[in-house]
TrEMBL record:
It comes from the Bacteria. Its cofactor is Mg(2+). Mg(2+) 2 binds at residues 103, 106, 268. It comes from Shewanella holmiensis. PANTHER family: FRUCTOSE-1,6-BISPHOSPHATASE-RELATED, SEDOHEPTULOSE-1,7-BISPHOSPHATASE, CHLOROPLASTIC. This is Fructose-1,6-bisphosphatase class 1. Residues 187-318 form the Fructose-1-6-bisphosphatase class 1 C-terminal domain. Substrate binds at residues 106-109, 196, 262. It is an enzyme of class 3 (hydrolase).
Length: 330
């Protein structure tokens, strides 16, 4: 089996991007160790701090953010970084060719229940001139690489450099990420959906109708039964979609009108959209292709509908309906 470094060489990825991706992979091995030790290492539970988005930071959010920040600072190829856990963008090295956006530990609510969590990253080209938030505000189409590492029963990396999506599995014996799927392909059709159903009453009418039709199964307009899954960590839900197809969505809702979207564009939606598109799937907000969005701020949130191409198209067709009638809020 090919190692990650061998695969990147065979894809003719340049040396600076290869070095950066190996830094991310090596850091994720250390994160995997910290996650695995759990309570034994005293890393579970919350801190007393909140991130810029008003979420209480877990100890592991802070530890893994520091691990990635330190590793990327030492790498030499990074011009700047942006993280879910950093209020502002961080300047790293004037010589660096790349910008890295990351969510150090996605699925924070799963940490203390020993369930799936992961690291998500997106690599953009550095721009000329001073480094500031504006430098990062590039559409997802500009990404040169994106991926996630899933800390599950085995530690796996999904990675794209624009030449398909590959899966690597961390070999606990050699400590190497080995190529275990060189051409991930999302099935175009599916009978499985992932959504937090408890928010149903807060969704737009388009999503209400689409999900209601899935739930009707064989007696509804879709004339087939659908299964539902919700891991509550985007890395876990997207990994399942990449493995066996499906549609994953965190749609617009009006639970808190000041916060109509949950997932972050720069370090959740864009990297996942790149992986999904490279595996033959599709990613949209319902109204725009995720990777075509021109970002306006680093911690911007968006609605996400992604996965099996034909099912995403079906969901989008509901968004073309006239749904001026707002759902009832209790
Ligand atoms: P979390 O807040 O636990 O980090 O990043 C946001 C996210 O997890 C996603 O990973 C996940 O898909 C979603 O939120 C879970 O949302 P719910 O709490 O509504 O289930």
């Amino acid at each position: 089996m090919q190692t990650l470094a061998q695969t990147l060489t065979s894809q003719a990825v340049n040396s600076s991007l290869t070095a950066l991706l190996l830094t991310l992979a090596n850091t994720s091995k250390a994160i995997s160790g910290a996650v695995r030790h759990g309570a034994l290492a005293g890393v579970l539970g919350a801190t007393e701090q909140e991130n810029v988005q008003g979420e209480t930071q877990k100890k592991l959010d802070v530890i893994t953010n520091d691990m990635l920040k330190d590793a990327l600072k030492a790498d030499g190829n990074v011009r700047g970084l942006a993280s879910e856990e950093e209020d502002y963008v961080v300047e790293v090295s004037k010589q660096g060719e790349y910008l890295v956006c990351f969510d150090p530990l996605d699925g924070s609510s799963n940490i203390d229940i020993n369930s799936l969590v992961g690291t998500i990253f997106s690599v953009l080209p550095a721009t000329d001139g001073e480094l500031n938030e504006q430098s990062f505000l590039q559409a997802g189409r500009q990404q040169v690489a994106a991926g996630y590492v899933l800390y599950g029963p085995s530690t796996m990396m999904a990675l794209t450099t624009g030449k398909g999506t590959q899966f690597y599995t961390l070999d606990p014996d050699s400590g190497e990420f080995l190529l275990t799927n060189d051409k991930v392909a999302i099935t175009p059709d599916t009978a499985e959906f992932a959504i937090n159903m408890s928010n149903q009453r807060f969704w737009e009418a388009a999503m209400q109708t689409y999900i209601a039709d899935l739930l009707l199964g064989k007696i509804g307009p879709r004339e087939q039964s659908f299964n539902m899954r919700w891991i509550a960590a985007m890395v876990g839900d997207v990994h399942r979609v990449l493995c066996r197809g499906g549609i994953f969505t965190y749609p617009t809702d009006n639970k808190n009108p000041a916060k109509p979207f949950k997932l972050r564009l720069m370090y959740e939606a864009n990297p996942m959209a790149f992986l999904v598109e490279q595996a033959g799937g599709k990613a949209s907000t319902g109204y725009e292709t995720i990777m075509d969005i021109q970002p306006t701020e680093i911690h911007q949130r968006v609605a996400v509908i992604l996965g099996s191409r034909n099912e995403v198209d079906m969901c989008l067709s509901y968004h073309g309906l006239d749904y001026s009638e707002e759902p009832t809020i209790d």
